[in-house]
Request: fold
Amino acid sequence: MILLLTIFRVAFKALGRNKMRSILTMLGIIIGVGAVIAMVSIGQGAQQTISSAIASQGSNMIMVMPGAWNSGGVRMGLGTTSHLTVEDAQAIEKECPAVKYASPSVRTTCSIVNGNQNWFSNVQGYDVHFPQIRLWEVENGTFYTDQDVITSQRVCILGKTVSDNLFPGLDPVGQEIRMRNMPWRVIGVLKSKGQSGFGQDQDDLVIAPYTTVQKKMLGYTFINGIVVSAISETATSTAQDEITDLLRQRHHIARSEDDDFQVRNLSDIAELANSSNQVMTLLLASIAFVSLIVGGIGVMNIMLVSVTERTREIGIRMAVGATGGDVQFQFLTEAVVLAIFGGVLGIIIGVVSSKVISNSLGWPTLISTTAIGAAFSFAALIGIAAGWYPALKASRLDPIEALRYE
Amino acid sequence: MGYARAMTSTDMRPEMARDGGPVIKVENLHKIYEMGDTKVHALRGISLEIYRGEFVAIMGASGSGKSTFMNLVGCLDSPSEGTYLLDNTNVASLSRIDLASIRNRHVGFVFQGFNLLSRTTALENVELPLIYSAMRARERHKRSRAALDRVGLGGRMDHIPSQLSGGQQQRVAIARALVNHPSILLADEPTGNLDSRTSVEIMDIFQELNETEKLTIVLVTHEPDIAEYAKRVIHFRDGHVMRDQVVQKRRSAAEVLASLPPAED
Reply:
């Protein structure tokens, strides 16, 4: 076998003789590798944003939601009915040792009016532990008190977006707004949280005592869910088990029956979001991989052309002592060099385009070293696969006929 | 030419047999090509010996089997029947890989069409056989430079074939054939594409190599005056050896060159 370094030099020289063609051939690989890296970077960027957004909400947080509703054999979706009560929430807080706080949660939407300004937003009702459970502080003003909750006071805390829209440039604390034609007193403004990992504006909401929301706005006494804070992050799953046991007991659910509620912690929800994101990423990446394969076919095509064009060269090399294996290795090396070069350029283009996308479109991207490694190795593998047949064809040429080839 | 040999038959060469036997010894060599249904019998039982230091011209009309014979002698092809001893090794039954190695180390080729790699410098062309001997770059360069010096092209090592004249290209090809110190030099119509003066120059190199280095040369040609530079001429016809004789009035390329007007370049 001839020296490896020499063979690489020969391959580079051969490719250098047809620069334009080599570059065009590499383009398929470049675009393929670049696309894989850019796609995976976007997908992973989105995942990371979700994870960090979830972490900012408190990883101790557990949500209890009403379960599916079975009506005449028709299973309704999650949250279509409510079996949860304020007493459930109180029992969770009292009886589950791994639970620190549990607050009932109710929600509705309505138009919020301040003078001639109005804004349509979410109104959510909690008890006084909302700031501790959601890790969300009041930036300006105060939170409502237990007394406000018990007596169903019409007080509210505005999210930053609502505050900015209803009181542009003004301090809303102490002002009065109107919801459902009733006057409410603004006692505070929440700190801004920005966009969630799903792209929602988290600051577009109004917080009020759940009792007030129930009585003045909804007119019913059951609740939409319970938000719970475990005593620590590690206690989350213990807390989930305790809540499940307690609620099954309280709801008189027989052992053979399904829960009529759902207990989820935020990482479950993050996982759900991530898994849909992963499917999307996988889909994009596989399209990109297809283009990489197409690039490989391009390499094979050019290598076949090259073998035919250089039949005489092959004949000369064989006449002076090249074995079939030497010739095969030479052409294989050329294909692999093309693919690897294309892979390196593809990595550069993938990384650059990820940066451009994140800068111009504002999408978060995370350059994935795994994707770089995978795309690069796949490119090299494609080089070998695409070069194999042309190289084999070259190695099987008859030296006499190859020498006579015009 | 102190060692001119007056021999007419390949059977009686007692003095040559003493220094190691023939370089090439073929016996009853047959080659049959199958082209579809028809069989072409290119060689029909060739037997001959070529000794070290001989300069043999092979002549014959096209289709006489001389090219087929050259391909077999050069280990580019295997015979259908018969034995071929090259340096006492039977190469008739060797595998393709072994044949490649024989071509690399024991045979040097010079072709009519030069067969140099285009867009590759003279030096790199000459290096080619050494690459397939897995020789290190420094040694390769050294030996290739020496071979180019030997054929008088030491000053044009970095030229590519298109920057060289036909004669110079053929010299590069000769240097390439010599660089691995082969046992035999096979030249297939080496002057076919060259004008008469350049042809004589090439024959001068051959004669010189044959005299000073005792290089065994086998030359295929259809030009009788070129054959007269050799020491022995073998005529092929229809796959048989028709005549095998010593050149009576051998020409000296050096003398012919001296009588020609000087070259224009």
Notes: Chain A touches chain B at residues 1-3, 5-6, 10, 13, 17, 312-313, 315-326, 399-400, 403 (CB under 8 Å). Chain A has two domains: 4-52+272-404, 84-259. The mean pLDDT of chain A is 86. Residues 4-52+272-404 of chain A form one domain.
